[in-house]
Amino acid sequence: MDRIGPLIEVIVYVADMDSQVRFYRDTLGLAVAYPQDLPDYGEQMWVTFETGTCSLALHGGGQGHQGADAPKIVFQVEDVSATRQALINQGVRLGEMRTAAPGILVCDGKDPEGNAFSIESRKLV
Q1: pLDDT digits (tens, 9 = 90+) for 54-100
Q2: How far apart, in whole angstroms, are the C-alpha atoms of residue 76 and residue 97?
Q3: Within a domain: residue 92?
Q4: What pTM was computed for the model?
Q5: Is residue 3 one of the residues assigned to a domain?
Q6: φ, ψ for residue 71 (rounded to 5)?
Q7: 118: domain CATH number?
Q8: 1 located within any domain
Q9: Residue 46: domain span
Q10: Total tally of structural domains belonging to the chain
Q11: Could you give the C-alpha distances from 123 to 21, 77, 79, in angstroms and in order?
């Protein structure tokens, strides 16, 4: 059997596509990769964001029945404290910053539909 390759995509099932696109695009600042430049994303079933080597895809049709072990999206940032404050200023509810491991600072939050995400910075120790 071949080894599993690198992570290439994280799919989040959402109920309100337009609201979720606005959160990830306008609040978190991710660029929409597909489909671009729509005035309203409410009728879309698939929207992807430019996130580096692993893409974030929102998939329509979600029913809001996420399990206790639902996936979490982790975004790398340079400065967790500054990014946390900027997001709080935009109305995003975030937890306190914590050290997850030596050199790893993390802050957890949830998108408007309750999907967990974190912002994280890593410094080599």
Answers
A1: 888 888 877 666 555 577 888 889 899 999 999 999 999 999 999 98
A2: 14
A3: yes
A4: 0.75
A5: no
A6: -60, 155
A7: 3.10.180.10
A8: no
A9: 9-122
A10: 1
A11: 30, 11, 11
